[in-house]
Amino acid sequence: MKKIITILLALILSLTAAFGASATEFVPSISYKDGPEIIEATLKGEEVSSCLIVTTIKEASEKSTDITEEERAKLLEVYSKLESGEMKLPLKNKYTVLELLDISFMYEGCRENPDHKGKEALLNGGAALSVNFDLNVNANDNLKVLVCVNDEWKPVESVKINEDGTVTVSFTEICPVAFVIEEEAADTPVQDNNIGTIIAIVTAAVAAVTSIILFILKFILKK
To answer: Is 4 part of a structural domain of the chain?
Structure first.
């Protein structure tokens, strides 16, 4: 009899734990596609777009990029961690990753500005790099831009959505960059409440079944 009770209790606990863990977290979606075009990039008032390399996940995977192997591997590592859920972006609400890119200065053959290494030093010294991306987003989109520095995601403070759908971002660090649409916090999150209600009902049902089983077991044991 004790073995039967132990087995029943184990099944009840397993069932309760399973329903308690049924709420899934949002998994960011990152598309395999070509990256956004850079319309303009300036550093201390000078045009430097020809000195920048924008590398997408697709290009990093195919090794069709001029960035260093370390930068390429870092971008793919960040992508893998985001996709698996091992790494999370520091955002309160659900989000969708529109673009995940590496932005770097060219190390060889900068067409118009051969002193591009000096410009990279300016950026590292605290100068801001202003880049205008063709992202085709709407003015009411809750767009966030984050950079990954030493495996830590930091929000970029200066982000402006322009009327033509382009986005102007002011970087003080360039590295893996995520362009993210974060959902606004709703006053009455219907979907989340529905999920919570279902879980609450199921949990209550499991508790009721547990009480009935325990009552029956007590009755049996008395006999």
So the answer is: no
Distance CA 184, CA 12 (A): 38
The reply to whether 1 falls in a domain is: no
State the pLDDT confidence band at 209, using cuts at 50, 70 and 90: low
65: tokens are: 């990029």
Long-range CB pairs of 135-138 (<8 Å, 24+ gap) are 135/36, 135/98, 135/99, 135/165, 135/166, 135/167, 135/179, 136/165, 137/98, 137/161, 137/165, 137/167, 137/181, 138/165
Q: Model pTM greater than 0.85?
A: no
Structural domain boundaries, residue 164: 37-182
Residue 20 is assigned to a structural domain of this protein: no
Number of domains in the chain: 1
Q: pLDDT band for 96, please (50, 70, 90 cuts).
A: confident
Q: What is the DSSP letter of 28?
A: P
